[in-house]
Design a protein that fits this description.
The structure is a single chain. This protein is mostly beta strands and 72 residues long. The chain contains no helices and six strands. A two-stranded antiparallel ribbon has the order 1-2. A two-stranded antiparallel sheet has the order 3-6. The protein is globular, with a radius of gyration of 13 Å. The two termini are 21 Å apart. The mean pLDDT is 79.
């Protein structure tokens, strides 16, 4: 699995590669309403302070956000 920050504010943030079976947690901390999630180039979903993303590799295509931006 490749995790890639899009438009990071620091040049030290680089893509990372983790094993497909690794457990990864990403939590929004710090400034509220300054983060968004985009999966496979689909529509971005705003993340709120305290939101946590637990990505995992699937053998099939996972549906993305609906037309209102809610994750399915």
């Amino acid at each position: 699995m490749v995790v890639t920050p899009i438009c990071p504010h620091l040049l030290t943030l680089r893509p990372i590669v983790v094993r497909g079976d690794a457990r990864l947690a990403v939590r929004v901390e710090g400034i509220a309403n300054q983060a968004a999630l985009t999966v496979d180039g689909q529509k971005a979903v705003e993340l709120l302070l305290g939101d946590e993303i637990l990505p995992e590799v699937r053998a099939y295509r996972q549906p993305g956000p609906d037309e209102r931006g809610r994750l399915l």
